[in-house]
Amino acid sequence: MSNIHFQCPHCRSRASIRTSEEMTLTMREITYQCRNPECGHTFVVTAEVSRTLSPSAMPNPNVLLPISEVVKARLMRQLELLPEAPQR
Question: How does 8-28 read in b/e, with b if 16+ C-beta sit within 10 Å?
Fold first, then answer.
């Protein structure tokens, strides 16, 4: 599991991941515990995939994510540069 680093919101010490549970295909709940023994705060972080920056070459039909507005605008500009298809 890759580590997403969080600080304790109370004492600002580094927190460690204790558990991570997939809730949906695009969302996880990650439980962190503060490393400061004088604090000991345990908290949950929700990590969610919010948008697509580069489309998958193996898309899952059960995953519906919006394309980033910046990427969408770039794709539209690229389409404007394409020559028109010959008419039949």
Answer: beeeeeebebeeeeeeeeeeb
Could you tell me where the beta strands, DSSP code E, fall in 1-88? Answer: 6-7, 14-24, 27-34, 42-48
pTM across the whole model: 0.72
Q: What is the pLDDT of residues 14-58, one digit of tens each?
A: 999 999 999 999 999 999 999 999 999 999 999 999 999 988 999
Count of structural domains within the chain: 2
Q: Classify residue 82 by its DSSP letter.
A: S
| Count of beta carbons in the 10 Å neighbourhood of residue 32 | 23
Residue 63 lies in a domain: yes
SS3 (DSSP) at 69: helix
